[in-house]
Amino acid sequence: MSRSVLVTGGSRGIGLAIARELQQAGDAVAVTYRSGEPPEGFLGVQCDITDYAQVDAAFKTVEEEQGPVEVLVANAGITKDQLLALMSEEDFTSVLDTNLTGSFRVAKRAVRGMMRKRTGRIVLISSVVGLLGSGGQANYAASKAGLVGFARSLARELGSRNITVNVVAPGFVETDMTAALSEERQAEIKKNVPLGRYGSAEEIAKTVRFLSGPDAAYITGAVIPVDGGLGMGH
Questions:
Q1: Is 231 annotated as a binding residue?
Q2: How far apart are CA 129 and CA 56, in angstroms?
Q3: Cβ count near 117 (within 10 Å)
Q4: What's the domain range around 152?
Q5: Is 11 marked as binding a ligand?
Q6: Residue 70 belongs to domain with CATH number
Q7: How far is Cα 120 from Cα 218, in angstroms, rounded to an integer?
Q8: What is the per-residue pLDDT for 29?
Q9: Is 140 a catalytic residue?
Q10: Dist. CA 5–CA 12, nearest whole Å
Q11: Fewer beta carbons within 10 Å, N or C terminal of the chain?
């Protein structure tokens, strides 16, 4: 059966790949975006997840167009990299507000309907950086590590309502951002990845599809690394 799905930050990159994968699975998929134009073929909802009023309005639109959200993929995120000694408080707090508190806002809004229906799937997109750490990314790493504790707490709260909450932790993925790196930097990154290559956005998306589907009904509170072995042991 087609389910109502919402993917935050679904207009490009990993988020768009996830939206396409779930649509191919037969789901009705809506995506949030902050600026520009939404991708064709999806219900696009403009939303800044740092504003709960916008989050609430986005959910109301999705509910009216395709029904209460049954699968939430919290993917939207930002980076503001800087060494700690030079990092401004705004650079730290704005990344936390988007990546971690933004996920809180959308999850809080989504669980209303899920609890009423006594079923639901929540998948949070973290990062290998949240497990390993990364110089110059203390804000980003803190936000992505926070998603793990958040997800596991929700998994305990919501398990009795048949709502699962899991985390996907991608490693280095082929995106516009990694393509812009120098060949030397790309070679250095790949040297540290046991599989010796970047992942693809589609590989992340297929993991999300599994976690949001019936075959993962007994998986909750899990952190699934999709990182070529970069973060193993964490």
A1: no
A2: 30
A3: 14
A4: 4-226
A5: yes
A6: 3.40.50.720
A7: 12
A8: 98
A9: yes
A10: 16
A11: N
From the candidates 33, 52, 140, 198, give the one annotated as an active-site residue.
Answer: 140
With tokens 């203390």, the residue in question is 138
75 annotated ligand binder: yes
232 found inside a domain: no
CA nearest to 163, candidates 108, 203, 223, 202: 108
Query: Is 12 among the annotated ligand-binding positions?
Result: yes
79 within some domain: yes
Tell whether 231 is covered by a domain. no
Alpha carbon distance 39, 9 (integer Å) = 11
| pLDDT attached to residue 175 | 81
What is the DSSP secondary structure assignment for residue 159, as one 8-state letter?
Answer: G
Count of positions (residues) in the chain: 234
State residue 179's pLDDT score: 78
Q: What is the pLDDT of residues 140-176, one digit of tens each?
A: 999 999 999 999 999 999 999 999 999 999 999 998 7
Q: Is 140 annotated as a binding residue?
A: yes
Residue 119, token pair as written in the block:
């079923």
Give the tokens for residue 37: 């134009």
Element spanning 160, H or E: none
Asked whether 33 and 27 are in contact (CB, 8 A), the reply is no
Average pLDDT over residues 37-62: 96
- Domain total in the chain: 1
User: 109: which DSSP letter?
Assistant: H
pLDDT digits (tens, 9 = 90+) for 178-210: 777 788 888 888 999 999 999 999 999 999 999
